[in-house]
Amino acid sequence: HAIDKQKLIDELMLGYGRPMDSLQVPGYDAYDPSVGFGRPMDSFQVPLFDAYDPSIKTDFDPYRARNYLSKSGYSKSKPVKLTIQTTQGYRPKDYEMVKMITEMWQEVGIEANIQIHADKEHLRLRARHELAPAAFFNWSNSTGDPFMSTGLAMLSNSPDSTFKSAELDRLIMPLMNEADERKRIRGYQKIDRYIADEGLIIPLVQFFQTVAHSRDIEFTPHSSGEVLPQEIRSL
Q1: How far, rounded to the nearest angstrom, does the alpha carbon of residue 50 sit from its chain's CA centroid?
Q2: Do the domain assignments include residue 220?
Q3: What residue ranges of the chain have pLDDT lower than 50?
Q4: 212 occurs within a structural domain
Q5: Is residue 77 part of a domain?
Q6: How far apart, in whole angstroms, are the C-alpha atoms of residue 233 and residue 131?
Q7: How many separate domains does the chain show?
Q8: What residues contact residue 170 under an 8 Å CB cut-off, 6+ apart?
Q9: Cβ-contact 108, 2 below 8 angstroms
């Protein structure tokens, strides 16, 4: 609740992005719109995918963030201290985004020390489950299937996971052999809501791919990010 994702997009990305609230985005099979910050990301799913659930929402609410911290005995005068790791230049404005986030955290009672490392070091630490308490990372999902986002990111034995959670394993493992597609998708939506409710991850933004073209053509963008010749027409 302490991070203003839209501000990250507006000030660092010139508005070219979408806030996220889960590991799904519009267009992902398991996207649930109730997990969210409006257009920022709040889960691993995003619009256009079936698992995307727009009801998953995590509002920007510094007051609520301070209240949660106070219940654990922390405040601006007695901040919780932690390390957050990030790359610098591996993704657009990665370091700048983390720096801006730590400034927002400071306002509610979180004092974060930024540690910069190369992307290869991040991957090495992630594979060994040795990342800092907080770490900036990115994921992509060209298939739209929720296993490729939520599953791979949260399953304990996945090489792409930073977590070791018996509860997440209990929720994810049965879905790997689930033959009923709608039941499988609903299962991942349930997992995304659990992740959001427990604050296990903080989805930030979905990057937009910008395409510059002359005014004498008409261009229809493709959801995969591909620039398709058949979608370009002269005016």
Answers
A1: 17
A2: no
A3: 36-39
A4: no
A5: yes
A6: 48
A7: 1
A8: none
A9: yes
Alpha carbons 58 and 125: distance in angstroms, whole number: 28
pTM above 0.85, yes or no: no
Integer Cα distance of 128 and 159 in angstroms: 9
Q: In the β-sheet with 80-86, what is the strand arrangement from edge to edge?
A: 110-116, 80-86, 134-135
| Residues in CB range of 39: below 8 A, 6 or more apart | 6, 18, 19
What type of residue sits at position 46? V
Contact 227, 217 (CB under 8 A): no
SS3 158: coil
**How many CB atoms are closer than 10 A to CB 7?**
15
Count the Cβ atoms, other than its own, within 10 Å of residue 43: 38
Q: Which of 148, 139, 192, 156 is nearest to 31 (CA)?
A: 192
Print the domain residue range for 49: 5-207
Predicted local distance difference test score (pLDDT) of residue 223: 67
Q: What is the CATH number of the domain that holds 73?
A: 3.10.105.10
The answer to whether the beta carbons of residues 53 and 35 sit under 8 Å apart is yes
Instruction: Tell me whether residue 232 is in a domain.
Output: no
Please list the helix, strand and coil fractions of the chain in percent, rounded to the nearest 5, in that order: 35, 25, 40
